[in-house]
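I'll show a record.
***
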Amino acid sequence: MLATPPTLASQQNQEGSAGGNELQKLFAAARAAKEAGDLPAAASANQKLIALSLREMGKLRLFENAYPEAAELYRRSLELEDVPDAHADLAIAHLLANRPADSAVETRKALASDPRNAATWTVQGEALIKTKDYRGAVEALHRSLEIRPDPETSYALASCFLRLKEKEKAAAIFRQMIAVAGERSDLYLLFGFAYRDAGMADDAGQQYRRALALNPRAPNAHYHLGLSYLMGNEWAPTPEGRSEFLKELELNPRNFAAHYLLGYMAFSSNQEAEADHYLGIAAQLKPSSPETWLYLGLNAYRRKQNQRAEKLFRTAILLAEQDGIGAHNDIRKAYTSLGRILMGSGRTQEGKRYLQKARDLQQLMMADSQQGSGMAEPAGSGVSSADVPNLPQEEAHISLPGTGKADPTAPLNARVLSRANFTSEQKKLIAAQEQYLRSVLGASFNDLATAEAIQEQYAAALGHYQEAERWDPKVPNLMRNLGFAAYRAGNHPEAIRALKKALVISPGDDAARAVLNELRTSNDGAASQNKKDKQP
């Protein structure tokens, strides 16, 4: 009997139970078809079981913040079973992976079959906001709210109105939210974020001041107010901004973002010792931030501490490349300055490579319209004090891109998993859920392939046996099945690989040994003939 899967969090209990019950039903249907000898029905039931299991694994990857991996799992599920829920889930994965255009495409597919799904309309609205189709986003969010009132959707609609400079419409939504929830400092902070993201720094500041009036100790309120002063002054340091960051540190001495921006402001104002102080603390609080090491390096470079600057730039570059350069535009300055240090110390070839990387990044940023050509650094300094720094990631809401196409069958990269900051109990639940789903996928792909092999569909069977191996190589008789399917499909190298493994597991399998010996003899003969053909 198939085990019931563990659930991951309290809010997922109902959903996890529903998924587990459906898996049990599909497993029972596949087993019944197999026992009845109905091969087409067995293949169909296993395809549905695999599709659902892939969707469940996709939900697990979403929970782990592994968005590209989740998207690939949903895409693979849709190849086996095209259902609206999978399109909706794929849309969410694309949105979180910062692929809003792909997300919008998937929401349209989902809504074509299920136009009364409020959550999908909201996802479409969020995707259209990211593609800057604000009118389209307004329409989608309105459709969602017509189906189901929801404060998060209302907030997204208000944010969209602000992007369209329709401030009164946004303000009316905010007033309605206050009427429902009451005067709360956290709501005014949220309103401030919406104004800030729309480029309305002064209006954002008003919301933050209102939050502080309601609660002088509101978490991060002083930080965000200080940030609004910086943004309103085109990132040039202001006394008001510095004062708010210092107030934030009085309440929360371990606020990384406040330390980071105090250090940046000091650097921009040529206050080198103060810059080292605040940036040094920021680096201790969050050693994974490339920007902190970058500005520490630039500060050292300005002070002509080239040996120290080189180490700091290399650290910044390493961290940025691990996360994906696209999330760290400022890192161009590290390449440029490191290249100059290397050139100046006689390491010409290495220096040229870093300078070329800086030029490549500059071209990329210009092509993406992220920064203009006026952002180039003046010779010698490695930075312009007018350059806008990347915000710390938790404030900029940066989605880290994947590195190429994700392999859905691979165990999750430890570095990706570490970003989620799970508790030990959550880690245990995640591991149990993954092991369970891998066993289901391995067994189901094996059964699907067996049904295909019996019907002499050997190429299809081979592919599905290989997928079973990637999910769970411990499935009984899998390597034997794979080897014989590869043999009959004419893939002799794969047959030899699999049958060798099968004989390690079952040394007394005479049929497998006979086929393996035949293949080896055939290969040896072919190799000998090839050698003779090459002789003059």
The two ends are 64 Å apart (CA to CA).
